[in-house]
Amino acid sequence: MRFVYSTFIYGYGCFLRFAALFNSKARQWVDGRRKLFGRLETALREIDRKQNHIIWFHVSSLGEFEQGRPVIEAFRKRFPEKKILLTFFSPSGFEVRKNYDQADFVFYLPLDTPGNARKFIKIVQPEMVFFVKYDFWFNYMKTIHDQHIPLYFISALFRKNQHFFSWYGAWSRRRLCYVNHFFVQNVESESLLRSIGINEVTATGDTRFDRVFAIAAQSKPIPLIEKFCAGKQVFIAGSSWEPDEKVFVPLTRLRELNLKYIIAPHDTSPGRIREIRDRINQQSLCFSDLNDENANLADILIIDSVGILSQLYRYATIAFIGGGFAGGIHNIQEPVTFGVPVFFGPNYNKFREARDLVSLGGAFCVTSSGDLIKKVSEIIGNYQEYNRISAICRNYVEENRGATEKIVKYIEAGKLVSW
Questions:
Q1: pLDDT in the model for residue 419
Q2: For the residues of 94-156, what is the DSSP string, one character each?
């Protein structure tokens, strides 16, 4: 079965190299791995291996990075003598965070072939390894295990319909034994792992709550955004896709609501920005063009850059989170930590925080423009009701904080199985 898995990985690599001829993201994926081992060896050459052990954190993309980030920064603070290596699988994460200053080294992860895994571990020689959420690379996991290096998963999340818990998942299920300890997001994940004999597991919660709380605490004003908002109530659409825009764009035409609108699409390419402006068919501004002179000339601002959305939610009165009419909603924790009521489409059931907040009354599922307009109008027109919902959101984040501290304390106390 390992041969089949590795053959698939080789095939995936060949596919991406072919796709790189036509697709810019695939081209970044391929180009970022060229001569990677040589660059890695050069970067690590000056390390005193006796004094500066390497802690390796791996994340898939930007979302997983935000989950791993609180633990990385806690390790940096608690163990300043150690060197931190951060790897990404996806260009969308690497390109945004390749200059992340809390990691000593940031690289792409080489493709998960047996040879690559052995070579990578030989060069890096990590003291311990952390994989975030569910990036299961079985050849790396085996090599780490064979070298007696502790491997931990943080903010891991398991669902009953995953192959690990099916009759055909025996091979991959056995690979989970390579992990020294799983820090999982919820008790459901803990129970599922225990049901297949994986007992080195602790339900610590989701580290993203620690991250979004820190973002809110450290958030600083953005003067141009403040000038655009002009003291009005603000509707922010975050990480939106085309089906989401069909739902919330009609809201922008209701002048009686007297709202300002900030739209931050998931895809900020020039073509997508043009599509959004055409769909809106009203006066709008792009963030790249925003200045002191034009900030008050439009009620709709389109964010055509990445990396600032989490900071924008401090200005939101209402947030609409994209993805609920496609593969699944994006991060709702960022607006919720500011006490912002959130709306999204019907595809949210995979996300515990969304289910919880819908149940508590801090988040709302909508299926049409009419649903959205009705509920938004009710909330912004009722100050007392808005404050009640806002308090639900803030309290939910507060109650779910603390996963990072639990993980680091486990490591410090030596409670985990070690080699």
A1: 34
A2: HHHHTT-TT-SEEEEPPP--HHHHHHHHHHH--SEEEEETT---HHHHHHHHHTT--EEEEEE
Instruction: Report the candidate in 302, 350, 303 with the shortest Cα–Cα distance to residue 326.
Output: 350
CB 65 within 8 A of CB 94: no
Gap between the Cα atoms of 44 and 40, Å rounded: 6
Planar angle of CA 109, 112, 113, nearest 5 degrees: 130
How does DSSP assign 271-336, residue by residue?
Answer: HHHHHHHHHH-S--EEGGG--TTTTTS-SEEE--SSS-HHHHGGG-SEEEETTTTTT-----HHHH
* Contact (CB, 8 A) for 251 and 373: yes
Residues in the chain, total: 419
Identify the band that residue 418 occupies on the pLDDT scale cut at 50, 70 and 90. Answer: very low
- Name all domains of the chain by residue range, CATH numbers in brackets: 2-205+402-413 (3.40.50.11720), 221-400 (3.40.50.2000)
DSSP state of 35: T
Q: What is the DSSP string of 45-69?
A: TT--TTT--EEEEEESSHHHHHHHH
This prediction has a pTM of 0.83
**Residues 63, 181, 104, 211, Cα dihedral to 10°:** 40
Over residues 336-376, the pLDDT tens digits come to: 999 999 999 999 998 889 999 999 999 999 999 999 999 99
Rounded Cα distance between 187 and 184, Å, is 8
